[in-house]
Amino acid sequence: MAKREKLIEFDTLLQELFKSNNCQLKELLHDLVTPTQFFLLKLIATKESCKAADIAHILDISPSAATTILDRLCKNGWVERDRSDKDRRIVWLKVTESGKTLLSDIEAKRFKLLVSQFDNITAEEIERTCEVFKKILKRR
Q1: What is the pTM of this model?
Q2: Contacts of 96 (CB under 8 A, 6+ apart)
Q3: What span, in angstroms and rounded, lies between the C-alpha atoms of 29 and 16?
Q4: How far is CA 39 from each of CA 42, 87, 94, 120, rounded to the nearest angstrom?
Q5: Per residue of the chain (140 residues), what is the pLDDT tens digit?
Q6: Phi/psi zone of residue 82: left (φ > 0), alpha (ψ -120 to 50 degrees), beta?
Q7: What are φ and ψ of residue 82, in 5° steps?
């Protein structure tokens, strides 16, 4: 099979994998949070300091859309807004203990799901796949 056909097959399989993973993630989240809210919560947790404008930039959405998502996370007690003492216009975002617990629970379930998805894949196959993805990402 020519490279072009292999690329088309790869693209199709990747789309199917993403679609399947997204459906499984939605089931896993049980209407607690949307996949976008989960991603955002995880993003804030990994940053030392983060503002709503940073979120909007990373997700490539409008600041008002980011604020709407953040409002829901704050309302549920998973994220706190903290005004800067130096500049009151700056509002820092921080994941609460409740948010950290939620993230930890979801990550544990996601890892179980990942293990079951890859139970018929060898460690070497996973390593080779990771290397290919790293190579692709370097070209960006």
Answers
A1: 0.78
A2: 77, 78, 79, 80
A3: 20
A4: 5, 28, 14, 27
A5: 799 999 999 999 999 998 988 888 888 888 788 888 998 999 999 987 899 999 999 989 998 999 999 999 999 999 999 998 888 888 999 999 999 999 999 999 999 988 988 999 999 999 999 999 999 999 87
A6: beta
A7: -135, 115
Tokens of 29: 């989240």
Q: Tokens 């679609």: give the residue.
A: 19
Which amino acid type is present at position 18? F
- Helix and strand numbers (H, E) in the chain are 6, 2
Task: Quote the tokens at residue 127.
Answer: 């390593």
- What tokens were used for 40? 């955002």
Copy the structure tokens of residue 70.
């953040």
Ordered by start, the domain boundaries in the chain are: 6-138
Helix-helix angle 52-59:35-46, to 10 degrees: 120
Instruction: Tell me the CATH number for domain 6-138.
Output: 1.10.10.10
